[in-house]
Amino acid sequence: MMSGMLVQVLGRKRSLILVNVPFLVGWLLVCTANTFEQLAAAQVVLGVTIGLCEAPLNTYYGEISQPELRGILAGSAGKDGGTYRGNNW
After folding, report:
1. Domain extents in the chain
2. How far apart are CA 39 and CA 30, in angstroms?
3. Is 41 helix (H, G, I), strand (E, B) or coil?
4. Residues 6+ away with beta carbon under 8 Å from 73
5. d(CA 89, CA 67)
6. pLDDT tens sequence for the chain (89 residues)
């Protein structure tokens, strides 16, 4: 829901660029966390940020890709992200 509003206001490309800021904050929190609470907060920030990326990312893939590749790209957009995010710690 927030992702759709962000795309409507800023557009797909700008919203994807803007979402990099909370990604950076989240990973800085992960790298500097000294307690479990700090690590949990970092994961919340990263989770919300990933949610903000989903709608504009799939739409952007649809716009820039060839018609025969759109389904493959849209279907695999979030597939690798969960592997890297969920199993690191």
Report:
1. 7-78
2. 6
3. helix
4. 61, 62, 65
5. 38
6. 677 788 888 887 888 888 889 999 999 999 999 999 999 999 999 998 888 887 777 777 777 778 777 777 766 655 555 444 444 44
